[in-house]
Design brief:
heterodimer; A: 2 domains; 26 helices; B: alpha/beta; Rossmann fold; 10 strands
């Protein structure tokens, strides 16, 4: 792929040379950038692609497949306006999302400055090389996203419409890129670099959830498309949607229809992208350059933002009461802060939680059937048991992920400290996961369950909570044990264990059925609870007594 | 007159002044040790001389070329090994050196041969095709040193070049530097490691709070201050004489 792109680039070498660019230098910069794109771990592929060059190109392939699926709308929908609006929206949203999530590292990378600037490369060549790289990157992306739709449009509507469709696509992409840049520049202008990285982090989390949910939802959406109206009607708010402008423009030319509405839309499609490009480059970009310079000058002393003192006070008091001083407290604090601050960890935990929510909603809905009165159907079922026990998976994911860190080497501090029972660190870490993630999540779940199924499920919620703890403790006791943040990402494969995953599902299933059994006998939960509490206590004790020998056995 | 570097009333300020009216010149074939406390303006001086910063006051020429007017010409002739430098670490050393060589418009075959041989000399032959993400600090530093010298520059600017290197590599690099000097290259060396500076430098310049406060060979400087070692001299000149009491404070708090 890299070679093909460079071959294409070579065709334009004369053009570059005549513009006073050192083409050889430009070519090697672009080549290196493409090579690094191929090796960068893309968001979609996550950790799996840590070796091999397939990451980026594999994600392009996925986009291509998705694009083909979406292009079927052109045939599935009778209304051309609707079909094109969906397709333009899809492509534009995807371009923006991908630019923000995967490309942000490229845009914000300052290592470029320290590597390239000391070399005899003119700033003009450097700038053009950067733009060339971005154009190639976005171009490839757009081709992957839109290839299906381009073909479908050409076949269904003919060559003239295809050309107009492509032109409008270009305008749409231009607008998306400008918008993304504008967004960056705005954030950069009004906040710190740290805040910007956090914002990107949350967008990445959001995108992962949308994407994973999309796999589940898109086929369903396609299925229910028949119910959409046949004829597109213009409202005042349709003038606010860029993809509507573009598809109206295509329709206007396809049907040779130039009434007031369509003419307005054509005007918007052309004027807005171009004027926004002008505005961004005129007013926001210069400020960005100077901001970057300031950042480079003062980057050595960027202080970590302090939490509000009052907030810290009561929370620290609260946590101090549930953990023992010493190693347990250390494990607790480390895990708590990592969950709150480590962006990479957040990027693994929150999408997993979000995905679980999507799955839960989908399965619950399916469980209750397609009847019109979904809520009634849901009430008569016992789907809440399912929800309660699936929540354990969150705990399982987080406990697995907390072992990994980019700073895994810093784990030496555990080994050099005089800790007799490293199990204490593990229980501290577990308590942090429970308090900062699981309790809030389970709390929300409980409220939802009680509000749908009524107060009678309150004992189920509490019983389920205890069971969840028993399940998770039995899982951590069976599983390989690792200190928090002490493993490199590369150890992921050897740390996970398929057999034990199955075991976990069995344990989960056992408790799920146990609980189901108790719902058949009134009062059974109250009888079982004390036994479970005692079991829980002993499991906790044994976990906290874990010795160095046992910990070493697995590492 | 055979000056490799001439700096004439050089001043630079960001929000506060970083360099205040600096003047010096460096002869061809000299090794200059450029030292100063953190934030004294060492890196800024080097960035100006290597053509990375162009908004400064005063004049600076490198090999007779004005760094402000023709930074590209300067960059072509010098080698710069920056402090805590970044690398494109998803590349392999060979790929990275190939890339850097092409930025200097060197011949592809020459780059290949030189990089392979230089990597082998530094003991990196086995890792030449591994991605640098897994490299230790010392290995990265070796790649950076090669990348800075691949194009056979006439002047070398080194900012803390020995960081992360093991003892053998340090001796090797020191030897390379002194042989480079024999071959007529000029070396501008900035570091915190005083005894290395003391041993390899022909002339030492000390900068403090943006001002050049000493300029001369170690024996000359020592004759003025009679302090025994460069470290003591440095402490004396940069005006930090409170080390003893600060250390005492540290011990007191530790004992609490």
């Amino acid at each position: 792929m890299e070679k093909i792109l460079l071959f294409v680039l070579d065709l334009f070498s004369g053009l570059y040379r005549s513009a006073g660019i050192d083409y050889k230098q430009l070519r090697s910069i672009v080549q290196v950038k493409l090579k690094m794109d191929g090796r960068r771990q893309t968001l979609m592929m996550g950790q799996q692609s840590s070796n091999g060059n397939r990451g980026y190109f594999f994600s392009l392939f996925i986009y291509l497949v998705f694009g083909l699926l979406v292009s079927m709308l052109i045939y599935a929908l009778p209304s051309m306006m609707y079909a094109l609006t969906f397709i333009y929206s899809y492509i534009m949203v995807m371009v923006i999302m991908i630019l923000i999530t995967d490309f942000s590292s490229v845009l914000l990378d300052t290592s470029d400055n320290s590597i390239l600037l000391p070399r005899p490369v003119s700033s003009r060549t450097l700038l053009v090389a950067r733009i060339t790289h971005i154009v190639l990157y976005v171009g490839l992306l757009v081709v992957a996203l839109s290839l299906g739709s381009l073909i479908a449009v050409a076949i269904k509507f003919g060559i003239t419409t295809f050309i107009i469709f492509s032109l409008c696509l270009l305008l749409g992409v231009l607008f998306s890129v400008t918008l993304t840049n504008g967004l960056y520049l705005m954030i950069m202008r009004y906040t710190t670099e740290e805040r910007l990285k956090n914002t990107i982090n949350y967008l990445q989390i959001g995108m992962t959830i949308v994407f994973m949910g999309g796999y589940q939802l898109l086929p369903r959406m396609l299925g229910s498309m028949e119910e959409v109206e046949m004829v597109f009607t213009f409202h005042w708010w349709t003038y606010l949607i860029p993809s509507v402008w573009l598809s109206a423009s295509v329709e206007a030319i396809h049907l040779n229809l130039f009434d007031l509405q369509h003419s307005m839309m054509i005007l918007l499609s052309v004027v807005i992208p171009i004027s926004s490009l002008y505005l961004v480059s005129r007013y926001l970009a210069p400020a960005f350059a100077s901001k970057l310079q300031v950042m480079a000058a003062e980057n050595k002393t960027t202080p970590q933002q302090q939490e509000k003192a009052s907030q810290k006070g009561w929370f620290e008091n609260l946590t101090a009461s549930i953990v023992n001083p010493g190693a347990e407290r250390s494990g607790f604090i480390l895990t708590q802060k990592a969950i709150a601050r480590d962006r990479k960890l957040k990027l693994k935990i929150y999408p997993a939680i979000g995905y679980l929510v999507v799955i839960l909603v989908l399965l619950t809905v399916r469980y209750t059937g397609k009847s019109g009165d979904a809520l009634e159907g849901l009430r008569s079922s016992q789907a809440y048991l399912f929800i309660i026990y699936f929540s354990t998976i969150i705990l399982h994911t987080v406990i697995f992920e907390i072992s990994f860190s980019d700073d895994f080497k810093a784990g030496w501090v555990f080994f050099s400290s005089p800790i007799r029972e490293p199990g204490r660190i593990l229980t501290g870490s577990l308590k942090a996961i429970l308090t900062s993630l699981f309790l809030p999540f389970y709390g929300v779940v409980s409220i939802i369950i009680v509000s749908i199924w009524g107060m009678s499920t309150l004992d189920d919620v509490i019983f389920g909570f205890v069971n969840n703890l028993v399940i998770i403790l039995s899982i951590v006791i069976i599983n390989k044990k690792h200190l928090p943040l002490s493993l490199p990402d590369g150890a992921r494969a050897s740390a996970s264990n398929f057999g034990r995953g199955i075991l976990m599902m069995l344990v989960l299933g056992f408790f799920g059925f146990l609980h189901y059994g108790t719902t058949q006998l009134s009062g059974a939960t109250w009888i079982l609870s004390p036994f479970l509490a005692i079991l829980l206590y002993f499991m906790y004790k044994s976990y906290s007594k874990l010795s160095w020998e046992e910990l070493r056995k697995v590492t | 007159m055979n000056s490799a570097i001439v700096v004439d009333s050089l001043s630079k300020s960001y929000s506060s002044p970083v360099l205040k009216n600096i003047n010096f010149s460096v002869n061809t074939g000299e090794i200059i040790g450029y030292i100063g406390p953190n934030g004294a303006g060492k890196s800024t001086t080097i960035k100006i001389l290597t053509g990375l910063i162009d908004d400064f006051e005063g004049n600076a020429t490198v090999l007779g070329i004005d760094v402000r007017k023709e930074p590209l010409e300067v960059k072509r002739r010098i080698g710069y090994i920056p402090e805590n430098a970044s690398l494109y670490d998803t590349l392999t050393p060979l790929e990275y050196l190939d890339f850097v060589g092409h930025l200097h418009n060197l011949d592809t075959q020459l780059i290949q041969k030189k990089s392979k041989d230089l990597l082998a000399v530094f003991g990196l032959a086995a890792s030449k095709d591994d991605r640098m993400t897994t490299f230790s600090k010392g290995m990265r530093q070796k790649v950076l040193l090669i990348a800075g010298m691949l194009h056979n520059p006439s002047i070398l600017f080194l900012d803390e070049p020995l960081s992360g290197l093991d003892a053998n590599a340090v001796i090797l690099v020191k030897e390379i530097l002194s042989q480079l000097k024999q071959a007529g290259k000029t070396i501008f060396y900035s570091s915190h490691i005083m005894d290395v500076v003391e041993k390899i430098s022909d002339r030492i310049m000390i900068i403090n709070k943006g001002e050049l406060i000493a300029n001369g060979s170690f024996t000359e400087l020592n004759a003025q201050a009679q302090s025994g070692s460069l470290e003591q001299l440095f402490t004396e000149l940069t005006g930090n004489r409170e080390h003893q009491s600060v250390a005492g404070q540290f011990i007191d708090i530790m004992n609490q």
